[in-house]
């Protein structure tokens, strides 16, 4: 507001100065022209008067006096001897050539004079001098004109200030409304009331962007909050039942209801081992799900990594009579974290082992298209129900077989795999037929 008043003030002052200079400049030109015309008229009048009878009579002098007053000039007539015979501002003599001269100094210092010889029948009979005020803009009307213009400027200044105040108030309102709404949104975010964050629409691009970012922030925070709640719910749910079993068994042992046989203690120990694994898996999941997962990226030869892992799995697969085949194209490179990639492949092979029955087969293939490396884990295992396919990558999802705890899974492995693939900007999909087997396909961008 203060600024707009200062701006209007400066603008009006500049306009006043410029237009005053302009007016003086153009007006002076105009007045010089006007003076020439006035001079011509007076000279013509005096010459015509003399031409008739060689003198300028009183009537004519009176007319000259009027004209001098009207044109704001000083008219001086002198005879041949430079004696003053008429001064328009003082009165008049008796006429040209009559010798009734005045002796007072008629020429004023602040006037400039134009002198013209007066002739009658070829003889010089006197002199006509027309004086103009040195400061060309002298006429009261001229100064009045400039004064009026300046008054108009002062009025327009006040109008401009009022307009500026009005417009700035309007502008401030328009600007502050969305800012206040944005402030409310951030306040709601800080209080955790994400659902109260409204979408804000303004004409200002930058404010719109800020509002959108804040909405996005609220959405993400709310998502994180829900994730956190769900995770803690899931964890307590997953741990509660095995802990209850452990507790009741130990109580029974303490009460002497059950004998502490080595088998019984081994079972309890198994349960503790399983829970420890679950906690470790959860810890891993939290790490890979968080945005802070740091990949130690390098150019990885996928065939090298896969063949080493496959080799390592052969004894395990053999123990279940599962045939493990690797069909790997050479020289396929991707940018990735070797350890994390290993973790993905080991997890998928472990599942293939777990969910493939004795005598089955597991095949790993590595191919590429123009810009992707494609890795497939194909097993002839128990398969996944069609309706369950969308859930397998969700944490704590377990198929019936796994749920029966024979395999000991907690339903976290595939969630970790999915997050790790995502961190590598890859995609993982699953295709499966119950009783026939499953195919897990991963696609990674080829390294350039
Ligand atoms: P889990 O620890 O239970 O194996 P995962 O997250 O690795 O957890 O797998 C989730 C579920 O997906 C498993 O319980 C199982 O039902 C199903 N699943 C995963 N891999 C396979 C597979 N190769 N064949 C059949 N089912 C599978």
**Sheet of most strands:** 5 strands, antiparallel
Instruction: Look at the helices and sheets and give the structural class.
Output: alpha+beta
Instruction: Assign an overall shape.
Output: rod-shaped
Q: Count every beta strand, where a strand is a DSSP E run of 2 or more residues.
A: 12
Strand order of the largest sheet: 3-2-1-5-4
Q: What ligand molecules are bound, each kind once?
A: adenosine-5'-diphosphate
Low-confidence stretches: 94-102
Q: Which oligomeric form is depicted?
A: single chain
Q: Count of DSSP helices?
A: 9
**Residue share in helices?**
40-55%
Radius of gyration from the alpha-carbon trace, in angstroms: 54 Å
The arrangement of helices and strands along the chain is: HHEEEEEHHHEHEEHEEHHEE
- What value does the average pLDDT take? 85
Strand content: 15-25%
Note the gap between the termini.
58 Å
Topology:
Layout: H1 2-53, H2 58-71, E1 74-79, E2 84-87, E3 91-92, E4 111-120, E5 123-133, H3 140-190, H4 205-254, H5 262-289, E6 297-301, H6 302-319, E7 323-328, E8 333-337, H7 338-354, E9 361-368, E10 372-379, H8 400-403, H9 413-423, E11 427-433, E12 437-445
Parallel strand pairs: 7-9
Antiparallel strand pairs: 1-2, 1-5, 2-3, 4-5, 6-8, 9-10, 10-12, 11-12
This protein binds adenosine-5'-diphosphate.
């Amino acid at each position: 507001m203060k600024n707009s008043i200062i701006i209007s003030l400066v603008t009006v002052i500049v306009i006043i100065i410029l237009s005053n200079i302009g007016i003086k400049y153009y007006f002076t030109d105009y007045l010089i022209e006007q003076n020439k015309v006035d001079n011509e008229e007076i000279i013509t009048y005096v010459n015509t008067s003399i031409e008739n009878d060689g003198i300028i009579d009183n009537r004519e002098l009176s007319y000259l006096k009027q004209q001098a007053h009207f044109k704001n000039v000083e008219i001086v007539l002198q005879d041949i001897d430079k004696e003053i015979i008429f001064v328009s501002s003082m009165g008049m003599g008796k006429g040209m050539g009559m010798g009734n001269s005045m002796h007072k100094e008629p020429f004023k210092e602040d006037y400039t004079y134009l002198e013209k010889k007066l002739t009658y029948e070829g003889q010089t009979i006197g002199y006509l001098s027309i004086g103009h005020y040195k400061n060309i803009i002298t006429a009261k009307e001229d100064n009045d004109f400039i004064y009026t213009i300046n008054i108009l400027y002062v009025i327009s200044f006040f109008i401009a200030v009022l307009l500026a105040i009005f417009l700035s108030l309007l502008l401030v309102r328009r600007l502050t409304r969305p800012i206040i709404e944005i402030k409310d949104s951030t306040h709601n975010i800080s209080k955790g009331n994400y659902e109260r964050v409204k979408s804000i629409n303004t004409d200002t691009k930058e404010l719109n962007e800020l509002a959108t970012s804040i909405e996005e922030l609220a959405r993400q925070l709310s998502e994180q909050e829900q994730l956190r709640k769900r995770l803690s719910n899931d964890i307590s749910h997953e741990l509660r039942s095995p802990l209850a079993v452990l507790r009741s068994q130990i109580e029974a042992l303490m009460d002497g209801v059950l004998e502490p046989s080595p088998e019984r203690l081994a079972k309890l120990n198994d349960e503790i081992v399983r829970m420890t694994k679950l906690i470790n898996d959860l810890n891993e999941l939290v790490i890979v799900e968080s945005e802070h997962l740091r990949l130690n990226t390098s150019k990885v030869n996928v065939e090298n990594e896969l063949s080493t892992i496959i080799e390592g799995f052969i004894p395990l697969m053999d123990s279940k009579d599962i045939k493990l085949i690797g069909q790997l194209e050479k020289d396929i490179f991707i940018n990735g974290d070797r350890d994390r990639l290993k973790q993905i492949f080991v997890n998928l092979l472990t599942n293939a082992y777990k969910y493939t029955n004795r005598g089955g087969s597991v095949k790993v293939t590595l191919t590429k298209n123009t810009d992707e490396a494609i890795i497939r884990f194909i097993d002839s295992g128990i398969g996944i129900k069609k309706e369950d396919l969308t859930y397998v990558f969700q944490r704590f999802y377990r198929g019936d077989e796994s749920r029966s705890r024979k395999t000991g899974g907690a339903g976290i492995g595939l969630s970790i795999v999915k997050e790790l693939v995502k961190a590598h900007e890859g995609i993982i999909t699953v295709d499966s037929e119950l009783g026939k087997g499953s195919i897990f396909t991963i696609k990674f961008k080829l390294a350039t």
